[in-house]
């Protein structure tokens, strides 16, 4: 893999490879863009088959966070970490502490939180070594687990997408096919069930499926069947790249709206959804509830303020559909433009020299 060529493709600032033999830590921190502020993004722990696969995931996810944070109006850049390993077998305290020390070494350029395979308990171990971590235990004044808030944002965003597709944002009586019933999707199913939606669920973890069947009367299907079920809305809440050449022809839904990051395998798959008249709620906007919540910690966490901001996801999704219609473009491009334009505006307004807050300007270095 030609790493610098890869980094140039989407103008990545920094890739940090972290290795600690003692604990078995092998992590890649990707800092994509810090124009808006420090790069904030979660840590994913996954059993990647190859190092290349891990690097690819880190950079795709890191760039996604730049767009997510920009579109959410946060003063934060984008980054992400992947830890190579099985989250069920390979975790230990030394690993997360070693990782925390690497983050500390970046001196605030990168702030972490949870993602697939990591928990509040893991963040607490990272916190033993660095302050640049959010989503730790509420006992520390933190916002805690971001997943239920991501779920709330995804629910609100799904309603905005239903409004676009059906002219009514009620989900009562709608059938929602949910892929992956993990930390985000379980509370999402709870909101949907409460509103009277019917649920079809799948997961590679049979226990997760069973929980949803028992709690919400969901219908269970095999993982490869979820794309072709008779439903109104498809909610991808597992891994990325699931909107692709194989799955699109199977879809019978009118709406794709879920929490997974990087849902479109390639951009052209967003065009394909558009061509088929399927309303797509751009992933990095509909799933921004968690980051909006943890970002509030930077101001001294206030739950009410954070939730109010999460509710703006409805308006953001609606605005994206309006821009898409106005400019005759698919929704994923409208969302990208919204984020890119904000970054450009801030980049331009920062073009003047400003002595920084710590007084370390050029003269002080003499
Ligand atoms: N947790 C958050 O706050 C948050 C925020 C924004 C985006 N996201 C994204 O949402 C998605 C889910 O995150 P999560 O925190 O709920 O993760 P999770 O690990 O708790 O849940 C994911 C679930 O998907 C299942 N799964 C994996 N591959 C599957 C497959 N091929 N078919 C069916 N099920 C499969 C897993 O078994 C697991 O139960 C991820 O893409 C994540 O990056 C999460
Ligand atoms: C900072 C986080 C809550 C990150 C989250 N996993 C996301 O993808 O948005």
Share in β-strands:
5-15%
Q: Approximately how much helix is present in the residues?
A: 40-55%
- Enumerate the distinct ligands: nicotinamide-adenine-dinucleotide, leucine
Query: What radius of gyration results from the CA coordinates?
Result: 20 Å
Q: What's the SSE pattern?
A: HEEEEHEHEHHEHEHEEEHEHHHHH
The rough form would be described as globular
Q: Identify the CATH homologous superfamily of the largest domain.
A: NAD(P)-binding Rossmann-like Domain
Strand count, sense and closure of the main sheet?
6 strands, mixed
Number of helices: 13
Which segments are poorly predicted (pLDDT under 50) over 5 or more consecutive residues? Answer: 359-366
What is the β-strand count? Answer: 12
Mean pLDDT: 95
- Backbone structural class: alpha/beta
CATH arch. level architecture of the largest domain: 3-Layer(aba) Sandwich
CATH class of the largest domain: Alpha Beta
CATH fold-level topology of the largest domain = Rossmann fold
- As for the number of domains, it is 2
Task: State the end-to-end CA separation.
Answer: 41 Å
Q: What do you see in this structure?
A:
The protein has 366 residues and is of the alpha/beta class. The protein has two domains: 3-63 and 78-133, Rossmann fold, CATH 3.40.50.10860; 146-287 and 318-339, NAD(P)-binding Rossmann-like Domain (Rossmann fold), CATH 3.40.50.720. The chain is built from 13 helices and twelve strands. The chain has helices at 3-9, 51-71, 93-105, 120-127, 147-166, 185-195, 206-216, 267-275, 283-286, 289-295, 303-311, 313-327, 331-349; strands at 14-20, 25-33, 39-40, 43-46, 77-84, 110-111, 175-179, 198-202, 219-220, 233-236, 255-256, 279-280. Strands 1, 2, 3, 4, 5 and 6 form a six-stranded mixed beta sheet that branches. Strands 9-8-7-10-11-12 form a six-stranded parallel beta sheet, sandwiched between helices. The radius of gyration is 20 Å and the shape is globular. The protein binds nicotinamide-adenine-dinucleotide and leucine (LEU).
